[in-house]
Amino acid sequence: MTDILSSHIGWSRSPMPGASQQQKQQQDQQQQNFQKNTRRALPRLKNDISPQSTSRKVTLFRNGDRYFAGKQTAIVPQNYSNLGQLLQELSTTIDLPYGVRRLFTPNRGSEVTDVSVIKDGASYVCASFEPFQKLEYTSIAVPRLTFNIEQ
């Protein structure tokens, strides 16, 4: 018994019956151009990462709290389309009575108004509605309690 679907049947390779040879050549040329264009992308190097795509580690302090030693957190600027979203996220990290509503630089007390301004390794002061209180935030250390056992 012979197989019905053998090499005797000449199957057409064109997607549409009746396509001319010129249309086939144009389709092949378009496919080759597409393949060439996609192969031209250069590999990304490790040092080629833009600063917008990396996370930024910052230290956050509470406004006016001279006993809060700061809390380090990582911020990815692409996760936040505006400063309000970042402040809402920081409200879960830093415990303030009315949440984090403002962000200041610790040295001059200038207010941060954009997420892209935040720098890696920098320190910032979180506040609710009160004005910035000038303290030496970066030099705050956790106080050590000592006990005198001899009594």
From TrEMBL:
Protein name: Doublecortin domain-containing protein
Doublecortin domain sequence ranges: 56-138
Ranges of compositional bias, category Low complexity: 21-35
PANTHER family: DOUBLECORTIN DOMAIN CONTAINING 2, PROTEIN RPI-1
Region (Disordered): 1-55
Region forming the signal peptide: none
InterPro entries found in the cross-reference section: Doublecortin_dom, Doublecortin_dom_sf
GO annotation, biological process: intracellular signal transduction
GO cellular component: microtubule; microtubule organizing center
SUPFAM superfamilies named in the record: Doublecortin (DC) (SSF89837)
Gene3D superfamilies found in the cross-reference section: Doublecortin domain
Organism listed in the record: Adineta steineri
